[in-house]
Amino acid sequence: GxxxxxxxxxxxxxxxxxxxxxxxxxxxxxxxxxxxxQFPKQSLMLMATSNEGSKATYEQGVEKDKFLINHxxxxxxxxxxxxxxxxxxxxxxxxAGGGGVYEQYFGPGTRLTVT
Amino acid sequence: DAKTTQPPSxxxxxxxxxxxxxxxxxxxxxxxxxxxxxxxxQGPQYIIHGLKNNETNEMASLIITEDRKSSTLILPHATLxxxxxxxxxxxxxxxxxxxxxxxxxxx
Lengths: 115, 107
Prior knowledge:
The structure holds two protein chains of two kinds.
Chain A: E1 4-7, E2 10-13, E3 19-25, E4 32-38, E5 45-51, E6 57-58, E7 67-73, E8 76-81, E9 90-97, E10 104-106, E11 110-114
Parallel strand pairs in A: 2-11
Antiparallel strand pairs in A: 1-3, 3-8, 4-5, 4-9, 5-6, 7-8, 9-10, 9-11
Chain B: E1 9-13, E2 18-23, E3 32-38, E4 45-50, E5 55-56, E6 61-64, E7 70-75, E8 84-91, E9 101-106
Parallel strand pairs in B: 1-9
Antiparallel strand pairs in B: 2-7, 3-4, 3-8, 5-6, 6-7, 8-9
C-alpha cells in the first residue's frame, strides 16, 4: 500500500504554545487528506477533511480557528494546534487518499503532550 | 454513514482462520464496506474494501452477504502479528470509526 509519513512522531509543548504536525504522502498524489484524533482507549475521531488547494471541512465540534489545516500540495498537509492546552493532548493521525471510494492510507501518528 | 456493529473481542489460535463479523443493516446503495486494523499506538492499516462482490487480496478476504447487511473479514492463517483492533466501516469517502473488534491471536 501507499506510504504516509508524519512528523514529528512525538512532541511535548507548553500550554499556550502552537504545534505544527506535517503529513506527507510519499509515493502518490493525495487528492484528499484527513486528520483524526484519538484519545486513550477510544476510537479515532475525524477532525477535518482537506482537499488540495481548498479550505478544509471541519467536523461538528472541531474549532477551525484552533486546529489550522493547510493542504498546499498533493503530497503535504499540515495541522497546527494553536494555543495548545493540556486537554489537546492526544494522538493525532493523518490519512491520505485518492478521494471518493478509494481507500485511505494512514500515517504512523503524532503523540502530542501539552504540559 | 451507516452504523456498524462488531463484537468487542475475539480470540483465535495461531495458524487458524480468523473470521470477524460485522453487521451493517442500514447500509445504503452507494456505500462501501471497508476494513482497517490498528495495532497499539500505530496508525490504522488498510486491509480491504468492497461494494457487493466478495473480494480477496494478499492480506484477507471480504465476504459480503447478498443483501449487503453484513460482512465477514477472513484472515486465512492468523499469526501473532495479526493481534490488533479491527474496524469495519461503511461509507463513501469519509470514514467513521466505531469501537471495532479486539482480535487476540494466541499460540
